[in-house]
Design a protein that fits this description.
- It contains eight helices and no strands.
- It is mainly alpha-helical.
Length: about 190
């Protein structure tokens, strides 16, 4: 990362080769359309190249930082897709044209969440954000590695250079803290 911050293209290429497959997997879990996922991946690396100086090694490991960027970008893309209106034009009805009488608008059910569901999602997201903010950075990092990256406790311990028992304790305490906080902040959270 230090070399990338200095604009070293070779270091960036090595970084890309070492991380792209993993990040594409993270993005595909959120955005299953491969073409869109690849576009998101490209945006992630463009942003990393432009904002490499914003990386702070004292806050997280490079892969955790990069995964967070990719996940957030994929979620933003998904939200952008949902926000685009779905439109269809009514067919020109001409006399004697049976296909023209088939109106495509009549067959278009909306898969979009309703206003109440969107409000509940926003409330739930805000509650989780508040509660995650109450966790220590180490606990947030462990949860991110476990639940966003799908790493086992042993892999997290290896990744963080920490004893396995400590990692298990951090995760267990973090989940307990989250549960208590969510019960306090959002008692109806599912």
């Amino acid at each position: 990362m230090a070399r990338i911050k200095l604009g070293d293209r070779t270091a960036f290429e090595q970084f890309y080769r070492a991380t792209a497959a993993h990040l594409l997997g993270v993005i595909l879990r959120i955005e299953p359309d491969r073409a869109r996922a690849e576009d998101v991946l490209q945006e992630v690396y463009v942003n990393v190249w432009r904002a490499a100086e914003s990386y702070d090694a004292s806050l997280s490991q490079p892969m955790t930082w990069l995964t967070r960027i990719a996940r957030n970008r994929a979620i933003d893309e998904l939200r952008r897709e949902r926000g685009e209106p779905v439109t269809a034009q009514r067919a020109d009805l001409t006399a004697g044209d049976e296909e023209a009488e088939d109106d495509g608008l009549d067959r278009m059910p909306s898969d979009a969440a309703g206003p109440l569901a969107l409000l509940e999602e926003a409330f739930d997201r805000a509650a989780v954000t508040v509660c995650m903010g109450e966790l220590a950075a180490r606990s947030r990092q462990c949860l991110a590695l476990a639940y966003y990256d799908g790493l086992s406790h042993g892999e997290i311990a290896s990744h963080l250079n920490a004893p396995l028992g400590s990692v298990k304790s951090w995760i267990r305490r973090a989940l307990g803290t989250l549960k208590n906080c969510l019960e306090r902040v959002a008692p109806g959270l599912r």
